[in-house]
Amino acid sequence: MAPEPGTRARQRERTRRVLLREARRLFAEHGYGGVGLARIVADSAVTKGALYHHFEGKPDLFRAVLEEVQAEVADAVARAADAHQDPWERLTTGCRAFLTASTAPDVRRIMLMDGPAVLGWSTWRALDEAASARHLTEALTDLVRAGVLRPQPIAPLAHLLSGAMNEAALWLAEADGPADLEDVWAALSRMLESQR
Predict the structure, then answer these.
(1) What is the pLDDT tens value at each position of the chain, 196 positions in all?
(2) Where are the alpha helices (H) located in the chain, listed in sequence order?
(3) How far apart are CA 56 and CA 60, in angstroms?
(4) Which residues, including other chains, have CB under 8 Å from residue 142's CB and lie 6 or more apart?
(5) What ranges do the domains of the chain cover?
(6) 173 contacts 98 by C-beta, under 8 angstroms
(7) What one-character-per-residue DSSP string does 134-155 give?
(8) pTM for this structure?
């Protein structure tokens, strides 16, 4: 007797989730270059055919893991920012939450170190923008409406601020000192304050 269609769909989704979870763990621990498909398949306890049913190959699997990491970071930033009513607090809290989230070892390795190297800068930047641009644009729009920022085109400001935060996060990914996050935040805070 064949399994019901809903059961097969749940099994496929469960297999996909296991592949993503194990690939994420392995990419975080060993880096993209240090992990082969055979290891991912073995640690996921699935066949290579099951992996290829869900992903075209290792780059496609990595991209899915990266998108998941970026979505989690974007959610953390939005939750932190949304906890504040004041638009300036929302912006600064969101920026700080992004930098803090970027220091998590798996985020550092997957999103900041391997992401641009594996997918290329343009693809990585497009994924980053898809994950976070809307929230940043909304925050800046609210600040202009509230009169906290001078009226100005939002799109270039959002790109410049996003670029500054990504560069800060990339620098933090390579830094080792415990005070580095505070130093970066102090510099970014001064830059943000100059816009008020």
Answers:
(1) 555 667 888 988 999 999 999 999 999 999 999 999 999 999 999 999 999 999 999 999 999 999 999 999 999 999 999 999 999 999 999 999 999 998 899 999 999 999 999 999 999 988 888 888 888 898 999 999 999 999 999 999 999 999 899 889 888 888 777 788 899 999 999 999 988 8
(2) 5-30, 37-44, 48-54, 58-82, 87-102, 105-107, 115-119, 121-145, 154-174, 180-193
(3) 6
(4) 87, 90
(5) 1-55, 59-194
(6) no
(7) HHHHHHHHHHHHTTSS-S--HH
(8) 0.87
Tokens matching residue 42: 């073995």
Closest C-alpha to 100, from 169, 16, 186: 169
Q: What is the pLDDT of residue 173?
A: 80
Q: 81-111: string of b/e by CB count within 10 Å (b at 16+)? A: beeeeebbebbbbbbbbbbbbbbbeebbbbb
Name, in order, each residue with C-beta under 8 angstroms of 191's C-beta and a sequence gap of 6 or more. Answer: 164
**1-55: what fold?**
Arc Repressor Mutant, subunit A (1.10.10)
User: What is the CATH architecture of 59-194?
Assistant: Orthogonal Bundle (1.10)
Q: Write down how long the chain is.
A: 196
Identical fold at 1-55 and 59-194? no
**Per-residue tokens: 13:** 């989704």
Q: Report how far residue 44's alpha carbon sits from residue 67's, in angstroms, rounded to the nearest whole number.
A: 19
